[in-house]
Amino acid sequence: MDKNMLKDTAVSYVKEAADYIREQMKYTYGIDTKEDKDDLVTDVDRNVEKFFKDKISKNFSEHRLMGEEGSFENIKDLDGVVWILDPIDGTINFVHMGTNFAISVGIFEDGVPLIGVIYDVMNRELFVSVKGEGAYLNDQRLPLLKERPLDEALVSFNTGWVLKDKDLQSVVEQVRGTRSYGVAAIEIAYVAAGRLDAYISKKLAPWDIAGGCALLNEVGGVATNYRGEKLTFLDVDTLFAANPSIYKQIEKELKSR
Ligand code: IPD
Ligand code: CA
Ligand code: CA
Ligand code: CA
Predict the structure, then answer these.
(1) What pLDDT shows up at residue 128?
(2) pLDDT > 90? residue 256
(3) pLDDT above 90 for 58
(4) In terms of DSSP bridges, do strands 198-204 and 154-157 run parallel, antiparallel, or are they unpaired?
(5) Which UniProt keywords apply (predicted)?
(6) Hey, where are the domains in the chain?
(7) To bridge 215 with a disulfide, which of 50, 86, 132, 192 should be the other Cys (CB 3.0-4.6 Å)?
(8) Distance separating alpha carbons of residues 87 and 99, to the nearest angstrom
(9) Which residues contact ligand 1 via a Cβ below 6 A?
(10) CATH: 3.30.540.10, 3.30.1180.10, 3.50.50.60, 1.10.287.110. Which one for 3-141?
């Protein structure tokens, strides 16, 4: 299938799933915890993943799905076409705030990001990219990221990590401002859109970053783990995603990583 048709199909699934989420928010839904009391999952997360699972197995039987809510156990490599899905990124925001959460899809081909779709469900902002064809926000093409001095940068952090890391504290002191949205996919999409200049986080899974990293590639952004190594999109890792000029300037501050 042509990559633009695949992108259109992925967008249509995401929009349908978003309608379902908004509808479910009118009612009570089940909330469970996973590894600890702050690790939330709802029936809505699970049902969105099931929706994608059914659609992909029916319409793309040769594609595989790596999703947060159970559809990842069998994925040990990224051979062929793999949909990397976070059915709701920012579940804590979804439950507590009823806004600031996203559906994130990264479609990879032999380990390379082909398509990124991130949809901010309540703010109705759709970030989409196709490899080699640029990234878009609600049909507006996102420009390549421009150089910017560190003292004019807006950076998003995992605050718990900043408390423990002297190098990051030095970055906080130098930048124009810091933010923390609690929704990795949107934070990476914001870096791609130039709304943020970097996003640094401590522990993210492939589904948190796949769609965002696909977008970043299309605007000249950089994404590695915190140590500057290539991301595998198979394991939990740190993330350092940034505008390329800001990446270089922050990197100089990370003396003990
Ligand atoms: C979480 C969010 C959050 C990040 C966590 C993720 P979830 O994803 O992206 O911003 O700090 O590490 O687990 O569980 O809401 O899909
Ligand atoms: Ca989760
Ligand atoms: Ca997530
Ligand atoms: Ca999730």
Answers:
(1) 98
(2) no
(3) yes
(4) parallel
(5) Hydrolase, Magnesium, Metal-binding
(6) 3-141, 150-255
(7) 192
(8) 15
(9) 68, 86, 89-92, 158, 182-184, 201, 203-204, 208
(10) 3.30.540.10
Residue 7 · residue 128 · CB < 8 Å: yes
Say if residues 128 and 12 touch (Cβ distance below 8 Å). Answer: no
Rounded to an integer, the average pLDDT of 108-113 is 98
- Residues, CB-to-ion distance under 5 Å, ligand 3: 86, 89, 208
Look at ligand 1, atom 11, and give the residue with the nearest C-alpha.
182
CA of 106 to the centre of ligand 3 (A): 13
Q: What is the ipTM of this complex?
A: 0.98
CATH architecture group of domain 150-255: 3-Layer(aba) Sandwich (3.40)
- Per-residue tokens: 253: 């501050």
